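Problem 12. The chain below contains 81 residues. Write out its predicted structure in token notation.
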Amino acid sequence: MIQLPVALLCGAPAGVLAVVVWYWSRKKLEVEELHGHATDPAASWGYGWFPWTWDKWQVLDVVLPSLSSAALAMLSLRLSP
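Solution.
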């Protein structure tokens, strides 16, 4: 679980953004690898930038950690003095 260390290190809002960027880049690389990244990295670079090109499970892989990270950020902002 990357959400807690990143939120504590960067602060709540920046932590949420860092988690979203990390999961998005991980998913983009996964989509690139499905399109032949190992054989031709330049040709596969254009794949996976947008979530509407992913399947529903790949979208959930980004959305669920993003939502939980946002919930943790809202909770930490609410609990801070």
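Discussion. The chain has a mean pLDDT of 77. Students who got a different answer should revisit the alignment rule from Section 12.3.
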